[in-house]
Amino acid sequence: MESIQAQKVMKGQKKIFGNEIYYEYYQHPSSTTTILLLHGFLSSTFSFRKLIPYAARDYNIISVDLPPFGNSGKSNKYIYSHKNHSRMIIELLKSLDIKEVILTGHSMGGQTCLNIMKDAPELAAKGVLLCSSGYLKKSSASLTFTSRLPFFHLFVKRRLAKTGIEKNLQNVVFNHSLIDQEMVKGYMEPFLNNEIFKGLTKMIREWEGDLSQDDLKRIETPCLLLWGEHDKVVSPDIGRRLHADLPNSSLKIFEGAGHLLPEEEPEKVYSCMKEFIEAAE
């Protein structure tokens, strides 16, 4: 595989809506097409580390840490909702003078992509949804109330610690032999900062749930849906429902893969993405 080290890579932060937003921008010497990568829940730009080297050979790449994850801020002034993530990404793209992107989202990031397609369709040339979240309801009233109790963030921390990073990875990766120390360390590192748990607590209160079926049916952006056959987190049945509701979509399900598709099948995922991006509408 061609190295991306020689490319111009910009790693930086921009303050948007009172929060520091971390992004990585891989600038291709000649391509005018830009892929935006948005990760899933409890993840970061790290989850695309195997996909980026393939995609950066042909396109510009922007990978963003959605707050409060990764290296982005955990400010209590920020609203941790899909809609606000969408607004933040729109502002970030404006600040980078990028007028159109291929929206690519994994899991929770897929739902943010769908919100951008709904709110700013002119930005979305096409969309790629990798095991995307779909049809989730907002947090219950009782959980929202409980999250306001003092020190609730410590309960969130204990709950996540009890499960453990390795057990979580075994749940999202079908082939457990892919789980190595680099992967464990990469997914554990963001949680060494205790501020993330305060952000997660605020997210519980502000999470508005996924887009409705009616909203999905009004999205005209061409979308490619890629799923793992053995996804235990977001069932392939969700992919089939999204395919039925998104009027201009196609669906491919990978055998022998789970939820963490960009980690498990980066070359196959990119091959499908490239074919989709280059196809005439």
Could you give the topology of this structure?
Layout: E1 8-16, E2 19-27, E3 34-38, H1 52-55, E4 60-64, H2 82-95, E5 101-106, H3 108-119, E6 124-130, H4 141-146, H5 152-163, H6 165-172, H7 181-188, H8 195-206, H9 213-217, E7 223-228, H10 236-245, E8 249-254, H11 261-264, H12 266-278
Parallel strand pairs: 3-4, 3-5, 5-6, 6-7, 7-8
Antiparallel strand pairs: 1-2, 2-4
Helix pairs in contact: 2-3, 5-8
Please, could you describe this protein's structure?
The chain is an alpha/beta fold and 281 residues long. Helices cover 38% and strands 19% of the residues. It has twelve helices and eight strands. It has helices spanning 52-55, 82-95, 108-119, 141-146, 152-163, 165-172, 181-188, 195-206, 213-217, 236-245, 261-264, 266-278, and strands at residues 8-16, 19-27, 34-38, 60-64, 101-106, 124-130, 223-228, 249-254. It has an eight-stranded mixed sheet, with helices on both faces. Helix 3 links the parallel strand 5 and strand 6 (124-130). Helix 2 (82-95) packs across helix 3 and helix 5 crosses helix 8 (195-206). It comes from Peribacillus deserti. Residues 34-266 form the AB hydrolase-1 domain. This is Pimeloyl-ACP methyl ester carboxylesterase.
